[in-house]
Predict the 3D structure of the following.
Amino acid sequence: MAHGGFAQSRVEERRQLGCRPKGLGVDKKKKKKDSISLKNQIRSTERFLRKDLPREIRLFQQQKLEDLKKQQETKAQLAVERKILLRDKKIKFFERRKVERMIRRLEKQQRVLSEKASEERVSDQLAKFREDLEYIRFFPKTERYVSLFVGGENPKIIDKRNKLRKQIKDNLVAAAASGKDLEETGSDDDVQDMSEDDFFSVGSSSDEGEADDEWTDKSTRYGTV
């Protein structure tokens, strides 16, 4: 009898453990409420405002509608920025590595050069690469990235790139005038674990090995001899 009573008590314990407290369950009502889109909330508020409402309630609902529309605009803007970032972050990261590598190489050459003409030539090239780095670092968030290395002699691309350079410089001047730092959009922080991405695994080793060829490629673009 004692043995049977022990077995029965174990079964009862299992049943109790199998019961999940109500507090741990998913609040379906809350989940449903949270899932209501801003678009639906806006429509619902607009329908409500068509009714004959007391002044205070109407003012409250109008303010609510305005806030919802601002949230919708912000959400849409963030979605656009994220889409552009995801599309362009690889090429921006890759080009920044190239430009920074060339800047380091030119700075090294500048330290060892003795001839004035050669030193001036390197200084000019260094200035251009620094402008390229500025272009990558502060490229406008809402614009589709225009590569520095693709479409070299295409007049439309060159014109677009020059306009973007001017826009970036204007943004930097405006930020400096307001006492703020312009947010970087081409920083390394924007890209996480990119070294493991297929984009870099294909040709990344040759990129390092052929770094010296960059001098030749760039000299053509900048008109150097």
